[in-house]
Amino acid sequence: MQIDWQKAIDEILSSEICCPRCGALVPEVMVGYSRAPSAGQFAPLCQGCDSRQECDARKLVLLCEACGRELRLRGRKVNQEAMMIALLEECQRNLEESLDYLAEYWREDLDIDPEDIGKRLEEMDPQLFAQENTWRRYLEEQYLKFHRWFRERALRIPNPAWRSEYVEEIIALNYESLLGD
Ligand SMILES: [Zn+2]
Ligand SMILES: [Zn+2]
Fold it and tell me: How far is the CA of 115 from the centre of ligand 2 (A)?
C-alpha cells in the first residue's frame, strides 16, 4: 500500500486518525519507536528524511491497534491530542539533533583536520549541508503545521519556550529558521 504521507498528515490534522498501514479511521492509535527501515513508511516524519538510503534512525511510528499488534510495535495507545503532542515533541527532538549536528557533530562525522576547526559545514561539504538543510526545513514546516493544529483548537502548545530557544541558537549559528527571528 503506497501512502501519500503529506496527504495522510493533512487528514490527521483535520479529523480522525488514519492508520498509515490499513487506512482505518480510528479515534486512538498506537505510538511507539522503531529502528527498522521497514517501519519508515509508518513514521510520519520519515517522509522528509533521505529516501536514497534505508532509514535506520529511531523513529516515531503510528499504527492502529490491530496493525501495531501485528507488527509488534512497542507503544502506547493515545487519542488525537496526545498523538499530536507526541509528533510535536518528536519534531522538537529532531530539530535539536539537527542543530547539534550543524553546531558541532558534523566535524566528528567528517573527521576534519584540526586546522579546519573554524570552517563551516557548507564550506567543507556543500552537498551534505544542503541535505541537512532540506531535512531541517521539512521538520520546521511540520512543526508549524502541528503548531497550527493546537492553535486552531485553542489547546496549549507543550513546552512553548522551546521554540524561542531553538530559534536563538540557530540564529547564533548564522542560519535561518521558519520558526521566527
Ligand atoms: Zn491499521
Ligand atoms: Zn527516516
Answer: 33
CA of 66 to the centre of ligand 1 (A): 6
Tell me the longest C-alpha to C-alpha distance in the chain: 56
Phi, psi dihedrals of residue 56, rounded to the nearest 5°: -110, 20
In the block, cell 549536528 appears at: 101
pLDDT of 31-53, one tens digit each?
Answer: 999 999 999 989 999 888 876 56
SS3 label, residue 106: helix
Separation of CA 38 and ligand 1 centre (Å): 15
DSSP state of 101: I
How is residue 172 written as a grid cell?
Answer: 547564533
> Could you count the other beta carbons within 10 Å of the beta carbon of residue 125?
17
> For the residues of 19-66, what is the DSSP string, one character each?
PTTT--EESEEEEEEE--GGGGGG-GGGGGS-TTS---S-EEEEE-HH
pTM attached to this predicted model: 0.86
Residue with the three cell numbers 530559534: 167
Query: What is the number of the ligand closest to the CA of 73?
Result: 1
CA 36–ligand 1 middle distance (angstroms): 18
87-144 pLDDT, tens digit per residue, is: 999 999 999 999 999 999 999 888 889 898 889 999 999 999 999 999 999 999 999 9
